[in-house]
Amino acid sequence: MSVETTPRERATELATELGDAIAELDVYDAFLEAKATVEADEELQQEMAEFERLREEFLMAREAGTASNEDLLELQNAQEELHSDPKMSAYLEAKSELELRLQELDQLVSEPLDVEFGETAGGCCQE
């Protein structure tokens, strides 16, 4: 007696397999390694927190209508300095490579559908 799976069960099974396959990609491993390196660097974490503080201050000032070009330049300079750190640069590159691969997979999944899978599923790129 054979047990047939429903389309929902099959889709769930395939999604699980896809997640497992993504977790085995070199690009995913590189991302995790770069992320761990950034997270382990206390000085870099402090720089990130300082940048986030500046960003929040700028956003509040912009909402209040008090943000200046100097404020924007200060924020941009802080971002450039943060991104120039070799560990942060490696992390951002690894993240970008992973996002590109995930976008490619999203296109493959979306191809037979009448909707953009990643957006419909609440993907990370939805703003």
Fold blueprint:
Blueprint: H1 7-23, H2 26-40, H3 42-64, H4 69-84, H5 86-110, H6 117-120
Helix pairs in contact: 2-5, 3-4
Key descriptive features of the protein:
79% helix, 6 helices, single chain, mainly alpha, 127 residues
Describe the structure.
The protein is mainly α and 127 residues long. It has a domain at 26-110. Helix content is 79%, strand content 0%. The protein contains 6 helices and no strands. The protein has helices spanning 7-23, 26-40, 42-64, 69-84, 86-110, 117-120. The termini are far apart. The relative contact order is 0.11.
* Terminal-residue CA separation: 48 Å
What percentage of residues falls in helices of 4 or more residues?
Answer: over 70%
Overall residue-averaged pLDDT value: 91
In terms of DSSP E residues, the strand content is under 5%
The quaternary structure here is single chain
Structural class: mainly alpha
Q: Roughly how many Å is the radius of gyration? A: 20 Å
Order of helices and strands: HHHHHH
Number of helices: 6
